[in-house]
Amino acid sequence: MFVPSDNSPPSLEDFTLVMPAVAVGNVGQLAVDLIVSTLNMSRVGFIHTDCLIPMAGNNPYSTCKEDAQELHTPAEVYVAPELKLAVLQIRAPIVQTKSKKFRQLIVSWIKASGFSRTVILSSSHAYQRDDQQMKGTPLRYLATPSLLKASANALKELGWREMERVASFPGLTEANAEPRLCIPGGGITKGLYTDSCSEDLPLAVVLLFCSEGDNIPDAFALVNHLNDWLHLLDDPSQAPNKWKIPTSWNLLFGSGIPPSMF
């Protein structure tokens, strides 16, 4: 359930929604961090649900001492009204037995809010690619039939590669076996995409093949790829540091080594 920050819920009609999937390397979440921080987006509410592991913390986008102590929750909504852009940032893993329930909650909220389109930023295990997926760029996309009606030409002009379907049983040649969509390490990405196809929702998945580790370069690659389509920034290729890194990234790998160890 969406809970607004004040008594007057914001109108999100015809906004574009960008959200991450909790997936390998947390690349989608890091990319969303860059969007919220760079565009100085305003928090307008949060998603109240028992499907996410409960947690709370300080403001990840603080710019001064005064706002650093604000309490933030696992699923929050930010907006940039001038761009008609909304972002749902998810900071906690989904409870394993409640994945389907969480997908249903998100789909219901998307329909109730009237978003013009939804974009899921995700990632998938690089080591589980098949031969065709190892060629060229590690970036892929998926789009529901509803989204293709409005954006097929734009995606074609970008020259993006669609996520390939793979053999049901790799290594076996079975004439009757249909290739299937497989996104290992992608969390709810495949399920949310399938649900959106069934509900006729305009939704796209933009994902990157990667491995666990320092995934900051992957986040920049993913957000720049998204920017080629949505034009959130004018031309980030001319200024590599134009994306603003949030203060919370200083502790991505924990605090420093305690001097007392030595």
TrEMBL record:
Top-rank taxon, per record: Eukaryota
Compartment(s) where it occurs, according to its Swiss-Prot or TrEMBL record: Nucleus
Keywords: Chaperone, Nucleus, Phosphoprotein
Main location: nucleus
Keyword Nucleotide-binding: no
Gene Ontology, cellular component aspect: cytosol; nucleus
One BP annotation, GO: proteasome assembly
Keyword Transport assigned: no
Annotated function: Chaperone protein which promotes assembly of the 20S proteasome as part of a heterodimer with PSMG1. The PSMG1-PSMG2 heterodimer binds to the PSMA5 and PSMA7 proteasome subunits, promotes assembly of the proteasome alpha subunits into the heteroheptameric alpha ring and prevents alpha ring dimerization.
Subunit structure: Forms a heterodimer with PSMG1. The PSMG1-PSMG2 heterodimer interacts directly with the PSMA5 and PSMA7 proteasome alpha subunits.
Family stated for the protein in its record: Belongs to the PSMG2 family.
Name of the protein in its database record: Proteasome assembly chaperone 2
Organism the protein comes from: Scophthalmus maximus (Turbot)
